[in-house]
Amino acid sequence: RSIMVEHYVNRNSSVSYVGNVYLGKVQNVLPSMEAAFVDIGKGRNAVLYAGEVNWDAAGLEDSAPRKIETALKTGQPVLVQVTKDPIGQKGARLTSQISLPGRYVVYVPGGGMSGISRRLPEPERIRIKNILKGLVPDEAGVIVRTAAEGVSEEELTGDIARLKAQWEEIQEKAENPSTSAPSLLYAEPDLTVRVIRDIFNEDFNQMIVQGDQAWED
Question: pTM for this structure?
Fold first, then answer.
């Protein structure tokens, strides 16, 4: 006897941009709002607040004041990720602190800090910490998800390697002279793949999908 505990519906009409990475184009900077409006090619401009700016990527000296007008200029391309879909008259919310979710870890290319889910028992946290030592580049960070409990070194290595390659591909596109802003550099997979990546653990023994396309994916 089965009990349904969660039900997800994905409609083509309600496409989400959350998690997508764009090379956006700064339209205007509003110092009074501590925000910049960025064109990501979706008609309405998206908003990047000062608190979400990647100050390291902005190339400012440590002594420089962290003001949005010192980091961003009108017309400049900027690498951004959508954190909130547009609602009504409000444009999408952005961050320039990119993070890429995998099965066992979230890879944070510009964040030298690493963290491990508090839900994991202490011996497991120590084991994972030791595995991660040689895997993560100095300038990057990873957040280890609860799903990592008990997984092999090989699986963790594979997850990080895949995300690292994904980030390198994004960077390559962003730095390629033929890539003009605004353009999409990385799109989050659809709901079917996201549910498996983000939610599945050993408690699941079956998944039922409808349609050939979902099965193929």
Answer: 0.84
